[in-house]
């Protein structure tokens, strides 16, 4: 094939053929692959022979030392060692199983529990006589008892209560509010109290549930020169007039500050 070869030279041709140059002739034969393992991996790229550095089991490649359970194995454990698969199956005793884990692998039945004159099947849950707060379970002939789990409470300690016949504490209902706290200084208004929070047009009331409800007053009556009384929400249009910073009564006549020849009068309309 256009390449000189020395006498006695050996090489691999495509198709896994082993060739040699002998006496001016090229002799080729299929590569022989002695495989010393039972579950070799397929030949890697660039190689002709399978590899025993891992295992091929049920179409799945396993690494060296990999421990696994076959898909159809009943608790069988297998290990890959030097291309060989070794499996170990549990020994299943006849009759009752010695442990619950063995019962998951074998067809044997877990041992029943005899407890205080009663017989319970494996996995059965029951409470002690007269003690509903203790829960017991039968596990392969052995009885394990523990207190019934209680929920986590989000109320403070002084509001927790243990009623007659109850196993767990419960939260008492919070006491009914006696009033409304309205600021950081601890000022409390009794239920039904009405007050103004600083704005004379806003009134607040302490509700029965301890909440505060506020409402603003809308001033309907308007006039151009009303009298504004401190602490009163709406301006007063019936008492007189406010003009240039002075207050005049109804029907009061006064000279204009802007023009002394003009005379003004306060009229309620």
From TrEMBL:
Gene Ontology CC entries for this record: cytoplasm; extracellular region
Xref: PANTHER family: VON WILLEBRAND FACTOR C AND EGF DOMAIN-CONTAINING PROTEIN (PTHR47333)
InterPro entries, A to Z: vWF_C/EGF_Fibrillin (IPR052080), VWF_dom (IPR001007)
Intracellular or extracellular location(s): Secreted
UniProtKB keywords: Glycoprotein, Secreted, Signal
SMART domains assigned: VWC, VWC_out
SUPFAM superfamilies in UniProt: FnI-like domain
One of the GO biological process terms: cellular response to virus
Subcellular location, principal: secreted
UniProt lineage: Eukaryota, Metazoa, Chordata, Craniata, Vertebrata
Chain ranges of the VWFC domain: 1-53, 53-114, 111-172, 178-238
Organism: Eurystomus gularis
Signal peptide: none
Gene designation: Vwce_0
Name of the protein in its database record: VWCE protein
Source taxon at top rank: Eukaryota
């Amino acid at each position: 094939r256009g390449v000189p070869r020395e006498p006695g030279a050996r090489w691999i041709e495509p198709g896994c053929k082993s060739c040699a140059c002998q006496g001016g002739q090229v002799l080729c034969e299929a590569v022989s692959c002695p495989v010393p393992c039972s579950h070799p991996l397929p030949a890697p790229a660039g190689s002709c022979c399978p590899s025993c550095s891992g295992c091929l089991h049920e179409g799945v490649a396993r690494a060296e030392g990999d421990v696994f359970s076959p898909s159809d194995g009943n608790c069988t454990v297998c290990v890959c060692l030097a291309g060989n698969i070794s499996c170990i199956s549990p020994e299943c005793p006849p009759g009752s199983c010695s442990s619950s884990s063995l019962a998951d692998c074998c067809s044997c039945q877990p041992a029943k529990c005899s407890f205080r004159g009663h017989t319970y099947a494996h996995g059965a849950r029951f409470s002690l006589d007269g003690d509903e707060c203790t829960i017991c379970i039968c596990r392969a002939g052995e009885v394990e008892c523990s207190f019934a789990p209680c929920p986590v409470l989000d109320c403070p300690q002084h509001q927790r209560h243990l009623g007659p016949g109850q196993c767990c504490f419960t939260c008492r209902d919070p006491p009914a509010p006696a009033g409304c706290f309205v600021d950081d200084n601890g000022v409390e208004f009794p239920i039904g109290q009405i007050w103004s929070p600083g704005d004379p047009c806003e009134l607040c009331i302490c509700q029965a549930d301890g909440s505060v409800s506020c409402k603003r007053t809308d001033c309907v009556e308007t006039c151009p020169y009303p009298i504004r009384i401190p602490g009163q929400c709406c301006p007063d249009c019936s008492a007189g007039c406010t003009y240039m910073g002075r207050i005049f009564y109804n029907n009061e006549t006064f000279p204009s500050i802007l023009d002394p020849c003009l005379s003004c009068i306060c009229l309620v309309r």
